[in-house]
Structures are given as structure tokens and as C-alpha cells.
Amino acid sequence: MFTIVTGAQFGDEGKGKIIDLLCEEYDAVARFQGGDNAGHTVVVNGEKFKLHLIPSGAIRKKRLLIGPGVVVNPLSLKREMEELKKRGFELKNKDLGIDPRAGVIMPYHILLDELCDRKSGIGTTHRGIGFAYQDKIGREEIQMIDLTDEESFWKKIEKITPLKEALVERLGGDKRLVRDEKRLKEYLEIGKNVKDYLTDVSAEVNERLERGEGVLAEGAQGTFLDVIHGTHKYVTSSSTISSSACVNLGVSPKKVDRIVGVVKAYITRVGSGPFPTEISSELGEKIRKKGGEFGTTTGRPRRCGWYDAVLMRKAVRLNGYTDIAVTKLDVLGGLEKIKICVAYELDGRELEYPPERTEDLFRCIPVYEELEGWKEDIRNVREISQLPKNAKRYLERIEELAGVPISIVSVGEERDQTILLK
Q: Per the confidence metrics, is the pTM higher than 0.90?
């Protein structure tokens, strides 16, 4: 069984909880793209785990895999492993496998990210993700396997860094930081420690599937942050949609059995970029506070808006969802009226599908359908039949507009605060 989980919106949909929930029935969880700019939160018995590179199956003690399409900050990886160990989840090489071809986020990537974001105003996380992916495409990448061979590592550094130094200097930065010897030696030390964790992730995933085992592919960010299909230029640096799992893990699409889309009962976005249904009033702030809408990785406040069925139509097409998981339904409790965006108005035309140009999406005016809200606290509900009538109607409308069945409804942050429909 090969299942892919991706976010259907702008990220922060609650994928961590859904992956933790689903992976009970799987043997391995494989992260297929992104870097430590991602943040997945899992809450079990009041204990909160914030994961950035380590797949969300860690709390279930599943086999964890970091695929070759991921870019890794060795310092972040070390910190995360140490934090999990402190909390009783020590990861040995039988627990965690890292593909030797996974790219390394170098200190100069982070420096360039900070310098360029000041000029672009995109609002990146300053984690160096985009510049690490640039080097992957430009074939000048330091890979995890290079950290295990000191001689090879320094040869690559000598070849790559002169151009980085010139670029940093031109952008007004301190070029001496490019070859920060102390930091680079730290990377090599981490390389020695993780050498035994390196494994061919593609080979392992395929072998597990051939043996009839279950593998869950974990995506980061969300559909509309996809570097190709998202709201360019306000996107991440990797492909976030379901087919990316096949490319980045090295698995044939013929082996995919299920694709789960995770979607909030409303929608949020971090940083700049178009957001047609954004709620700019006090209500948006109320939803932000009630939903705890602050970035897991950066702590930045998330912009909040009404559920956008127009974007969801495109997300369903791009990902081919077999079913969807709706999260944070409980956050909408207490509202008299709840809106769903069913179309956009642009230059006198009504659109049921997002325009191609990001500039046009900025100008789109949402066309809303209004539904009655509910006052009941639904956090203790475990059966769909126990939900208030208006909450059920809201879910039914989301399902109707998406054209995909809902399989999971989350009514709280805890693992057991969940309604399973499939």
C-alpha cells in the first residue's frame, strides 16, 4: 500500500496530525520534498511535538525515511534528533534512513536567502531552502554523502565557494561567512555521526512495497506553494503536489494506491502572496487566536480566510485526491454565519477556476455562499452523527464542491480528537 499525503491549500493544513493518525497502519513514513522550513505538529496526551525534517511517524516509532528530494540542514537534523531523544524517542539507524543524495543546506545558502529576501519581499523563512535547490538544479550541490568524506567535501567547497563569495559581496554581505570553517567542520562532524543512517531510499521504498508493506509519503507545505503550479512568485522552492512524491522518492506512479488531501475548514497563508478570501476584520484575528495560527517553524502569524472551494477544485485536479481530511472544524464553532467561496469575480466575469496569472488572483473578488453556523463545542465528538446539523451541512458542502469524499474530520489538536469516516 503506497499512500501520499499532501496539503491542499497554502500549507499549515494540519498534515502532521493526519500523518501521525494514518501511519499506525503503515510500516514506513517517507518525507519527499522541502527542508526544515516545514513544520508538522503532533499532539499526543497533551504533549506537543514539533517536527521539521523528521517525518511525522516518529511518535508512532515507524521506520522514517528522508528522501533524495529533501534538502537537509545538518544542524537542524542534529537538534531535532537530540530533542526527540530527550523525550524518549531516540532514533538509531534502524529507525531513520537518510538518502545519501539528499542536498545539504550550506551556511552560504542561508546567508544568500537573508540578503535576497530583503530585496524581494517574498517573505521566506530564511532557511536557505531555495538556494539549496538552485544548486541542485545547477549541479553544484553538496549532498549528505559528501559530509562523510572529508577530502571530497573540501574539494567541492574550493570549487563552489568563489562564486558564492562574489555573490554575497555584491549583495552587501560579508563574504568571509561563506567559508565559515568552524561551521563547516561542524557539518563534517555531523556527517560522521549520520554515516550509518545513509540508505538508498528509493530502493528501500520499492522493496517494502514489493513485500506488501505499507509506505506513507509525507509532503510538506501545500499545493499552492508548489514551485510550478503555485501562486508564483509567492511559492516554496520544491514541488509540493502528489506526483512529486513519485519523482522525489523514485517510485513509479503505477504503485500509488491512495492520495489524501489535507484541508483546513477555513484557509490560512503565511507571508506575502494573493489570498482572495482573507478576513481582514477582527474576525480574522479571532480565528487566528482560537486556531493557534502561528507558524510551527517561524512563529509568524498566519493570515486567515474563509474556505476557498475555487482553489480546492484546482488542488483536486493537480493531486488526484482519492479522499480528503478536514482539520480544525472546531475552530469555526460559535460563528453565527460561515462563508464558503464558490467562485471569483474578475473584470466582470465569474470564474469557477483560478486564473493563470498570479497578478490576476490578487484582483479576484470572492463570491460567497453563506451557511448557518453552530454554537456547540464539538471537540468531544467522535461520530459524524453526533455533530450539530449545521456542522454536518458544512462538511457536506465542502465534499460536494470538491467532488471528493471526506474520510477524516479533525475536531481538536489531540490525536484522538478525530472522526473517522473511512
A: yes
